[in-house]
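Researcher: For the record, we're logging two predictions in this thread. I'll number them. Prediction 1 follows.
Model: Prediction 1, sequence and structure:
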Amino acid sequence: AYLTYPNGASLLFTCRLIKNRNMADEANETSESESVVDPAMVTLIGKVNSLHEECIKIRQSTSDAGELNLLEKAEAKCKMCLQLLETGQAAAGKKAVLFKVLQHYSQALLDETYVLECRLVNADFPEDRCKGDIKHLIGTAIFFWIKFFFQGWLLKNNGSSNKDWGEVSSCQLDQPEELVKEMLGSEYKSGQILGSDILECLFWRRGALFYMYCHTLFNDPQRRKLDTTHIRQCAESGVKYLEAMLCVRSPLMMDAMTDVSAKNEDMMQLLKEGIFSDTHLLALMYSGELCYWHWKIVKETTTDQSVKESSDADENCSGNFNSVSNGRRLLQKFVNIVQDCFKGRGWDCSRAEQILAEFPEC
């Protein structure tokens, strides 16, 4: 199951927005903490316009009712963003408008990219274009973990020598987080602006797409042999996006709900484990299976038999990813939760138990 959370503006319009903003700035002085840098606002307008135009282009090439519905919703949200930007230029609380625009833009982006993702999945990731399409949607996989944990370092070192850094920051599903950083700096975190649901969905969608992609490659013997390093890189990034999704909300945030949750022990346990929906639970299974595929690929491609049988045989692409220990941790948590809280409710942990039995001892 591939689960999800459930005419472009003219240059004249853009210029009018800038003119209105400048007039408002001259008439009303605002503090630095409430102001938004003009170039960043122009960037945001450009991003919304680009997304709007892409939605129109995709809509013109499809007759599928489901796709048309999502694209129409995305277009409507883009128009709403542009209207908010136009009417909010003279307002004292520019940041309130900006927050709404970033949220609507993110929702429109999720709708539009879902159409493209489903096309890739339904076509079994065509060999002739899937890598380019995935890079367009997600970015260069191998750099995600560095980017996620060292955002401060990256901001101070914009001139990376690696040619792929620019592609990472321009990919579609990274746009909301990049815009928050560009427009608001370190003053706010992405979750504060976009909200937990949107941020979780952004991580989930990238992780789930990597899962489906790796599933397709791993189960195709011919494609599996062609680029084992690529599969390992994608599996690593898939795990890390899904784990990032699981970390958006801290279980500690649920302390205020103790009195309510205490009436249901299963619910209380789920909240303490950071499982807030079926999607969170599915993310554990997806992550564990990605670790399994990663380990199997490494095992198949390792020539040294003594290393091949070792639980450390998977220290590879990033140099610090251990698929066995990570897979055991994620799948054991999945099994424990299903057995304790979802027994007889349609969840099956037999596949997870099978993988755990196959993993070597750490």
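Researcher: Logged. Prediction 2.
Model: Prediction 2, sequence and structure:
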Amino acid sequence: MTAFRPLLLAALALAALARAQAPVPAPPRNAASSAAGASLPDGKPFTRITADMLNFDYGTNRVAIFEGNVVAVDPQLTLWCRKMVVFFSEKGSEVARIEATQDVKMKQVNKEAFGDKAVYTRATANIVLTGNRPRLLDENGNWIVSRGEGILYNVNTKIMRVDKPEMEVQSSEGGALAPKP
């Protein structure tokens, strides 16, 4: 079950971004490098998103587009990409979908996920990681999925599916199996 943790962490990160539904004050400058675990004065955790540019259309298209050096730091995970689009529901300010594209990397502690695109859809609770060689790396630096066409993870059911996986497995010390890149 620990083999699925990196994807779970990625799922938690995108889900956490989805729950960030209202603008929050920026933390003090000295907290910028470590927003993980931070909270607002009322005790609620927040997600800090930085980028080179933000285009926000809350009227017609109901989207927020972060572009250039996007970094989203959540108490549970950090997400890096070149572009992130947040789609809001037709009614209210709820997040319906989040798309992170171009050099996507998600990390929690020492677990990492990589791909060209990551999409979180709130209605289905699915995160889909796709693109050129989406892959997962565990806390020991072992590839959990070293090649595949797409990785789907459901946040609610904790079920992962990998389309067309390719893995080379070798025995490591202690007899555990670890993927080989």
